[in-house]
Here is the input.
Amino acid sequence: MRALLAAMLLAGAVKAQGPRTTLVVIAGVGGEPRYATAFKAMTQSMATAARTRFALPDSQVWAFTEDSTIGRGRSTKANVEAALTRIVSTGREGDRLVVILFGHGNAQADVTRFNLPGPDMTVADFSRVLSGYAGTLAFVNTGSSSGEYVKALSGPRRIIVTATKSAREQNETFFPAFFVKALAESAGDTDKDGRVSLLEAFTYARLEVERKFELANQLASEHPQLDDDGDGTGRGDASENSPDGKLARTFFLEPLGGAAVASDPRAARLIEERRVLEARIDSLRARRSTMSEADYQKALEPLVTELAEKTRALRALEGRKP
Here is the structure.
């Protein structure tokens, strides 16, 4: 009887915890002071945003840098693999794991590597250590030679973002600075709903990269890709209407209004209600091809209206914050 009661209490505690979001940010070897400084600064920005904007607890934020002055230690292969193994082993269905890499990559003899202090991690290493994760994985490699990660890591419930289209694009990448700006500073909030989806962040960074090369009148040396339909083929033009982009469109790191609003019980309830509505809208969109346009619009209108009402209510709460 005691054993049964203990099991019931444990199950209830696990259920009460709800889905968890974990952020792992890894800064690789800089090679030069300016790169080392930039990688560390972007890692710090993401770790800070995780706590202040995304409302993640310290226990769910893992940051590794070359010199270990911030975060959980040096970004060695041993430390990174140990952290990811631990997170993957405790992951549950509904959990979310976000892994972001800032650094250099290279490809030699058909082996793609991410440069770390000491031994590098290969794309195969990341694939191995992340296999079996029960939740949704968002893996973002913002460095050079990152394109190969799309094919290697793609799968169900996975969003893979890379700064390049292939391992042959080995020049310095401009994508990471724009990607961080999109998320940490909300520059990517194109629909102005107070949050930035991974699709919005990717699109913002991709367009800024394209604009940078256009203004310099140079041929682009990087072509960002996103894959979230599991076919291992990334797209530079991913959108909610293309094969890739549907999952990323609904993947948010932050609640509407940021951490301050998320701590309000009223906001927490509204945020959960928004998520339910978004899921219903996504399900409806998936069935659009099987419905008449009139039936689709009739079913969509009340959902969109209710979603807008929840958004207005959340914004009202945000406006009352000091």
Summary: Residues 77 and 119 are 6 Å apart (CA to CA). The radius of gyration is 20 Å. Residues 293-319 form the longest helix (27 residues). The longest strand covers residues 21-27.
